[in-house]
Amino acid sequence: MASPLQPGGLLPLWTFLLLVGGLAEAGKLLVLPMDGSHWLSMRVVVEELHQRGHELVIITPEVSWRLAKSAPYTMKTYKPFYSLEDYNQMFKRFSDNQWDNINKGLLSLMNPNITLFFEYVFSNCKSLFKNTELLQYIKESAFDAIFFDPFDQCGFIVAKYFSLPSVVFSRGLFCHYQDEATQCPSPLSYVPRGLSGFSDSMTFMERVWNHITHLQEMLLCPFFFQITLDLAIDVLQRPMTFKELYRDTSIWLLRSDFVFDYPKPVMPNVVFIGGITCHEAKPLSQVSYLHTSEQKDMELPFWKLFSRTKNVP
Protein backbone atom coordinates (compact mmCIF):
# COMPACT_ATOMS: atom_id res chain seq x y z
CA MET A 1 0.00 0.00 0.00
CA ALA A 2 1.29 3.45 -0.91
CA SER A 3 2.42 5.65 1.95
CA PRO A 4 0.11 8.65 2.59
CA LEU A 5 3.05 10.99 2.02
CA GLN A 6 4.11 9.51 -1.33
CA PRO A 7 2.85 11.03 -4.61
CA GLY A 8 -0.67 9.81 -5.23
CA GLY A 9 -0.90 8.35 -1.73
CA LEU A 10 -3.20 11.01 -0.33
CA LEU A 11 -4.64 13.71 -2.58
CA PRO A 12 -6.07 15.97 0.17
CA LEU A 13 -2.61 16.43 1.69
CA TRP A 14 -1.22 17.58 -1.66
CA THR A 15 -4.19 19.95 -1.96
CA PHE A 16 -3.41 21.37 1.47
CA LEU A 17 0.26 21.85 0.62
CA LEU A 18 -0.72 23.60 -2.58
CA LEU A 19 -3.07 25.99 -0.78
CA VAL A 20 -0.60 26.83 1.97
CA GLY A 21 2.67 26.87 0.14
CA GLY A 22 1.78 28.26 -3.25
CA LEU A 23 2.81 26.89 -6.62
CA ALA A 24 6.52 27.71 -6.61
CA GLU A 25 7.23 29.69 -3.47
CA ALA A 26 7.73 28.39 0.05
CA GLY A 27 5.36 29.79 2.64
CA LYS A 28 5.75 30.99 6.21
CA LEU A 29 3.47 29.13 8.58
CA LEU A 30 2.60 29.72 12.23
CA VAL A 31 1.86 26.42 14.00
CA LEU A 32 -0.14 26.09 17.23
CA PRO A 33 -0.21 22.40 18.16
CA MET A 34 -1.70 20.54 21.11
CA ASP A 35 0.52 18.38 23.29
CA GLY A 36 0.44 14.60 23.71
CA SER A 37 -1.10 12.33 21.09
CA HIS A 38 -2.53 15.33 19.21
CA TRP A 39 1.00 16.40 18.29
CA LEU A 40 1.94 12.92 17.06
CA SER A 41 -0.73 13.24 14.35
CA MET A 42 0.05 16.83 13.40
CA ARG A 43 3.80 16.22 13.30
CA VAL A 44 3.43 14.08 10.15
CA VAL A 45 2.21 17.11 8.18
CA VAL A 46 4.63 19.52 9.86
CA GLU A 47 7.61 17.32 8.95
CA GLU A 48 6.48 17.10 5.33
CA LEU A 49 6.05 20.86 5.10
CA HIS A 50 9.51 21.36 6.58
CA GLN A 51 11.07 18.99 4.05
CA ARG A 52 9.44 20.95 1.24
CA GLY A 53 11.14 24.17 2.28
CA HIS A 54 8.33 25.93 4.11
CA GLU A 55 9.34 28.10 7.05
CA LEU A 56 7.62 26.88 10.22
CA VAL A 57 7.42 28.56 13.61
CA ILE A 58 5.86 26.49 16.40
CA ILE A 59 4.37 28.31 19.39
CA THR A 60 4.21 26.17 22.55
CA PRO A 61 4.13 26.53 26.33
CA GLU A 62 7.42 25.91 28.11
CA VAL A 63 5.80 23.03 30.01
CA SER A 64 4.95 20.12 27.71
CA TRP A 65 5.35 16.37 27.26
CA ARG A 66 6.44 16.14 23.63
CA LEU A 67 6.53 19.58 22.04
CA ALA A 68 9.94 20.51 23.43
CA LYS A 69 11.44 17.73 21.30
CA SER A 70 10.23 19.25 18.03
CA ALA A 71 13.63 20.37 16.63
CA PRO A 72 14.76 21.25 13.95
CA TYR A 73 11.78 23.60 13.74
CA THR A 74 11.88 27.15 15.05
CA MET A 75 10.33 27.10 18.52
CA LYS A 76 8.88 30.06 20.40
CA THR A 77 7.68 29.43 23.94
CA TYR A 78 5.69 31.22 26.61
CA LYS A 79 5.46 30.50 30.32
CA PRO A 80 2.24 28.88 31.62
CA PHE A 81 1.08 29.28 35.21
CA TYR A 82 1.49 25.56 36.07
CA SER A 83 4.43 23.20 36.47
CA LEU A 84 4.95 19.87 34.72
CA GLU A 85 4.20 18.05 37.97
CA ASP A 86 0.86 19.87 38.28
CA TYR A 87 0.05 19.08 34.65
CA ASN A 88 0.82 15.39 35.11
CA GLN A 89 -1.39 15.18 38.18
CA MET A 90 -4.27 16.89 36.41
CA PHE A 91 -3.94 14.61 33.41
CA LYS A 92 -3.96 11.50 35.61
CA ARG A 93 -7.20 12.61 37.25
CA PHE A 94 -8.64 13.40 33.83
CA SER A 95 -7.71 10.03 32.31
CA ASP A 96 -8.89 8.08 35.37
CA ASN A 97 -12.25 9.82 35.17
CA GLN A 98 -12.59 9.13 31.43
CA TRP A 99 -11.91 5.43 31.92
CA ASP A 100 -14.41 5.27 34.78
CA ASN A 101 -17.11 7.15 32.82
CA ILE A 102 -16.37 6.00 29.30
CA ASN A 103 -20.06 5.56 28.35
CA LYS A 104 -21.44 8.82 29.76
CA GLY A 105 -20.69 11.00 26.74
CA LEU A 106 -20.89 14.75 27.32
CA LEU A 107 -22.09 14.31 30.89
CA SER A 108 -18.63 13.07 31.86
CA LEU A 109 -17.34 16.59 31.13
CA MET A 110 -19.18 17.94 34.16
CA ASN A 111 -16.89 16.10 36.55
CA PRO A 112 -14.73 18.58 38.57
CA ASN A 113 -11.54 16.71 37.61
CA ILE A 114 -12.41 17.15 33.93
CA THR A 115 -13.26 20.83 34.15
CA LEU A 116 -10.12 21.55 36.19
CA PHE A 117 -7.88 19.82 33.63
CA PHE A 118 -9.42 21.78 30.77
CA GLU A 119 -8.98 25.00 32.72
CA TYR A 120 -5.27 24.18 32.66
CA VAL A 121 -5.40 23.56 28.91
CA PHE A 122 -7.44 26.69 28.15
CA SER A 123 -5.19 28.85 30.35
CA ASN A 124 -2.34 28.44 27.85
CA CYS A 125 -4.00 30.87 25.48
CA LYS A 126 -4.28 33.51 28.18
CA SER A 127 -0.59 33.04 28.97
CA LEU A 128 0.26 33.43 25.29
CA PHE A 129 -1.57 36.76 25.01
CA LYS A 130 0.12 38.04 28.16
CA ASN A 131 3.50 37.59 26.47
CA THR A 132 3.81 40.94 24.69
CA GLU A 133 7.23 40.11 23.26
CA LEU A 134 5.87 36.98 21.59
CA LEU A 135 2.84 38.84 20.25
CA GLN A 136 5.12 41.47 18.74
CA TYR A 137 7.21 38.73 17.11
CA ILE A 138 4.13 37.15 15.53
CA LYS A 139 2.95 40.54 14.27
CA GLU A 140 6.30 41.41 12.70
CA SER A 141 6.85 37.97 11.16
CA ALA A 142 4.15 38.39 8.50
CA PHE A 143 2.99 34.77 8.46
CA ASP A 144 1.06 33.52 5.44
CA ALA A 145 -1.31 31.36 7.51
CA ILE A 146 -1.82 29.65 10.85
CA PHE A 147 -2.01 25.86 11.16
CA PHE A 148 -3.48 24.67 14.45
CA ASP A 149 -5.26 22.02 16.49
CA PRO A 150 -8.66 23.43 17.57
CA PHE A 151 -8.90 21.45 20.81
CA ASP A 152 -8.06 24.42 23.07
CA GLN A 153 -9.73 27.00 20.77
CA CYS A 154 -6.67 29.29 20.93
CA GLY A 155 -5.88 29.08 17.22
CA PHE A 156 -9.23 30.67 16.34
CA ILE A 157 -8.45 33.65 18.59
CA VAL A 158 -4.90 34.06 17.27
CA ALA A 159 -6.13 33.86 13.66
CA LYS A 160 -8.68 36.63 14.25
CA TYR A 161 -6.30 38.78 16.30
CA PHE A 162 -3.63 38.78 13.58
CA SER A 163 -6.06 38.46 10.62
CA LEU A 164 -4.40 35.25 9.39
CA PRO A 165 -5.91 32.63 7.07
CA SER A 166 -6.45 29.54 9.21
CA VAL A 167 -6.12 25.80 8.57
CA VAL A 168 -7.62 23.52 11.22
CA PHE A 169 -6.21 20.03 11.75
CA SER A 170 -8.50 17.79 13.80
CA ARG A 171 -10.19 14.43 14.22
CA GLY A 172 -13.44 16.28 14.82
CA LEU A 173 -15.11 18.47 17.43
CA PHE A 174 -17.57 17.08 19.93
CA CYS A 175 -19.73 20.22 20.02
CA HIS A 176 -22.03 21.62 17.36
CA TYR A 177 -20.06 24.79 16.55
CA GLN A 178 -18.27 23.37 13.52
CA ASP A 179 -21.54 22.50 11.77
CA GLU A 180 -22.99 25.93 12.51
CA ALA A 181 -19.86 27.83 11.51
CA THR A 182 -19.52 26.04 8.18
CA GLN A 183 -23.30 26.26 7.62
CA CYS A 184 -23.26 22.55 6.99
CA PRO A 185 -26.64 20.75 7.17
CA SER A 186 -26.64 18.02 9.82
CA PRO A 187 -30.17 16.61 10.14
CA LEU A 188 -30.36 14.82 13.48
CA SER A 189 -32.42 11.96 12.09
CA TYR A 190 -29.58 11.00 9.74
CA VAL A 191 -26.30 12.43 11.09
CA PRO A 192 -25.31 11.18 14.57
CA ARG A 193 -23.71 13.54 17.06
CA GLY A 194 -20.01 13.17 17.79
CA LEU A 195 -20.10 11.31 21.11
CA SER A 196 -23.37 9.44 20.58
CA GLY A 197 -21.75 6.24 19.33
CA PHE A 198 -24.43 5.85 16.65
CA SER A 199 -24.02 5.23 12.92
CA ASP A 200 -25.96 6.81 10.06
CA SER A 201 -28.39 3.85 10.23
CA MET A 202 -30.22 4.70 13.44
CA THR A 203 -33.30 3.08 14.90
CA PHE A 204 -36.18 5.25 16.07
CA MET A 205 -34.95 5.25 19.68
CA GLU A 206 -31.40 6.02 18.58
CA ARG A 207 -32.71 9.03 16.66
CA VAL A 208 -34.54 10.17 19.79
CA TRP A 209 -31.32 9.85 21.80
CA ASN A 210 -29.43 11.66 19.05
CA HIS A 211 -31.78 14.62 19.53
CA ILE A 212 -31.25 14.42 23.29
CA THR A 213 -27.47 14.40 22.76
CA HIS A 214 -27.80 17.52 20.62
CA LEU A 215 -29.77 19.22 23.40
CA GLN A 216 -27.01 18.27 25.83
CA GLU A 217 -24.50 19.94 23.52
CA MET A 218 -26.60 23.11 23.37
CA LEU A 219 -26.73 23.23 27.18
CA LEU A 220 -23.27 22.00 28.20
CA CYS A 221 -20.89 23.22 25.49
CA PRO A 222 -21.39 26.97 26.12
CA PHE A 223 -20.67 26.37 29.80
CA PHE A 224 -17.66 24.18 29.04
CA PHE A 225 -15.99 26.59 26.59
CA GLN A 226 -17.01 29.84 28.30
CA ILE A 227 -13.42 30.46 29.41
CA THR A 228 -12.19 30.65 25.83
CA LEU A 229 -15.10 32.81 24.70
CA ASP A 230 -14.44 35.28 27.52
CA LEU A 231 -10.79 35.40 26.49
CA ALA A 232 -11.73 36.00 22.84
CA ILE A 233 -13.99 38.90 23.85
CA ASP A 234 -11.24 40.37 26.02
CA VAL A 235 -8.50 39.98 23.38
CA LEU A 236 -10.52 41.09 20.35
CA GLN A 237 -12.28 43.88 22.27
CA ARG A 238 -15.69 43.22 20.77
CA PRO A 239 -18.71 40.97 21.35
CA MET A 240 -18.10 37.45 20.11
CA THR A 241 -20.05 34.21 19.76
CA PHE A 242 -18.73 30.71 19.20
CA LYS A 243 -20.17 30.74 15.68
CA GLU A 244 -18.28 33.94 14.85
CA LEU A 245 -15.10 32.50 16.34
CA TYR A 246 -15.24 29.42 14.09
CA ARG A 247 -16.78 30.66 10.87
CA ASP A 248 -13.76 32.42 9.29
CA THR A 249 -11.71 29.20 9.19
CA SER A 250 -10.28 28.82 5.69
CA ILE A 251 -9.85 25.03 5.60
CA TRP A 252 -10.93 22.22 7.91
CA LEU A 253 -8.62 19.21 7.60
CA LEU A 254 -10.43 16.33 9.32
CA ARG A 255 -8.58 13.11 10.10
CA SER A 256 -11.62 11.06 9.22
CA ASP A 257 -13.27 9.49 6.23
CA PHE A 258 -16.64 8.13 5.17
CA VAL A 259 -15.01 4.69 5.14
CA PHE A 260 -14.09 5.04 8.82
CA ASP A 261 -17.36 6.65 9.93
CA TYR A 262 -20.37 7.29 7.70
CA PRO A 263 -21.39 9.59 4.82
CA LYS A 264 -22.71 13.02 5.78
CA PRO A 265 -23.10 16.48 4.22
CA VAL A 266 -19.92 18.57 4.12
CA MET A 267 -18.99 22.00 2.82
CA PRO A 268 -16.30 22.66 0.16
CA ASN A 269 -13.71 23.87 2.70
CA VAL A 270 -13.95 20.62 4.71
CA VAL A 271 -11.31 18.16 3.50
CA PHE A 272 -11.15 14.57 4.75
CA ILE A 273 -7.62 13.28 5.28
CA GLY A 274 -8.36 10.02 7.08
CA GLY A 275 -5.36 7.70 7.20
CA ILE A 276 -2.81 10.51 7.05
CA THR A 277 -0.85 8.96 9.92
CA CYS A 278 -0.84 5.47 8.39
CA HIS A 279 2.54 4.01 7.50
CA GLU A 280 3.76 0.59 6.52
CA ALA A 281 4.04 -1.52 9.64
CA LYS A 282 7.51 -2.09 11.01
CA PRO A 283 8.43 -5.63 12.07
CA LEU A 284 7.99 -6.21 15.78
CA SER A 285 10.91 -7.38 17.86
CA GLN A 286 10.45 -10.64 19.74
CA VAL A 287 9.81 -10.10 23.44
CA SER A 288 9.21 -13.18 25.51
CA TYR A 289 9.65 -11.79 29.00
CA LEU A 290 9.23 -8.44 30.69
CA HIS A 291 11.10 -7.89 33.94
CA THR A 292 10.13 -5.81 36.92
CA SER A 293 12.42 -4.54 39.63
CA GLU A 294 10.76 -6.72 42.25
CA GLN A 295 10.25 -9.97 40.33
CA LYS A 296 12.76 -10.79 37.64
CA ASP A 297 12.32 -13.47 35.00
CA MET A 298 8.56 -13.53 35.54
CA GLU A 299 6.36 -13.49 32.46
CA LEU A 300 3.97 -10.54 32.56
CA PRO A 301 0.44 -11.49 31.45
CA PHE A 302 -0.74 -9.76 28.27
CA TRP A 303 -3.70 -8.07 29.95
CA LYS A 304 -1.48 -6.51 32.62
CA LEU A 305 0.72 -4.96 29.96
CA PHE A 306 -2.21 -2.99 28.58
CA SER A 307 -3.69 -2.18 31.98
CA ARG A 308 -0.61 -0.05 32.60
CA THR A 309 -1.00 2.14 29.53
CA LYS A 310 -4.12 4.12 30.30
CA ASN A 311 -2.31 7.10 31.82
CA VAL A 312 0.25 7.49 29.05
CA PRO A 313 -0.27 10.94 27.39
From TrEMBL:
It is found in: Membrane. It holds the Pfam family UDPGT. InterPro entries: UDP-glycosyltransferase, UDP_glucos_trans. The keyword Transmembrane applies. SUPFAM superfamilies: UDP-Glycosyltransferase/glycogen phosphorylase. Residues 1-26 form the signal peptide. GO terms for molecular function: UDP-glycosyltransferase activity. It comes from the Eukaryota. It is a single-pass membrane protein. The keyword Amino-acid biosynthesis does not apply. GO terms for cellular component: membrane. Keywords: Glycosyltransferase, Membrane, Signal, Transferase, Transmembrane, Transmembrane helix. Belongs to the UDP-glycosyltransferase family. This is Uncharacterized protein. It comes from Vombatus ursinus (Common wombat). The gene is LOC114027956.
